[in-house]
Backbone:
């Protein structure tokens, strides 16, 4: 069978489950903005650096692999840049006009967290013309707006019960 292998690095976008770092931050900010959560965010390790991509770029990479990929090749789908989780949080906080306190909770730390993960998409660029288009700021704002809309339209559990 002619098989190509994708090594997709961390990616995010509107609609992603809140168990991941970006939607977790976005949901907390949206809850605070709507008055459904006290202005305190609980976070884990902010020093980790991750290669973060927009899900739309990764899906495009999968399509390119299916159409143009060479059998047996492994393609890294990523941004090629490592950004700290602290930087992600700072960017998201700038999108809000609320004063938000950030509380680090060690229970959200991973036991064996890798300090930095960064990929290299040069092979994918050369062989299948994979080039990420979406900037991280755009991905973050889209995700935050998704959670703002979701919280406005759904009943969400709050610190003190459902609203």
Residues:
């Amino acid at each position: 069978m002619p098989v190509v292998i994708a090594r997709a690095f961390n990616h995010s976008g509107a609609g992603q489950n809140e168990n991941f770092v970006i939607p977790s931050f976005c949901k907390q900010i949206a809850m605070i903005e709507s008055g459904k959560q006290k202005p305190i965010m609980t976070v884990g390790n902010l020093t980790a650096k991750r290669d973060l991509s927009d899900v739309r770029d990764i899906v495009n990479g999968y399509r390119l692999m299916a159409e143009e990929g060479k059998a047996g090749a492994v393609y890294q789908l990523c941004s090629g840049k490592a950004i700290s989780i602290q930087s992600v949080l700072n960017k998201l906080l700038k999108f809000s006009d609320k004063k938000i306190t950030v509380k680090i909770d060690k229970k959200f730390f991973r036991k064996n967290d890798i300090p930095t993960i960064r990929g290299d998409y040069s092979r994918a660029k050369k062989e299948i013309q994979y080039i990420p288009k979406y900037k991280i700021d755009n991905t973050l704002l889209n995700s935050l707006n998704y959670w703002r809309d979701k919280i406005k339209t759904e009943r969400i559990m709050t610190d003190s019960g459902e609203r």
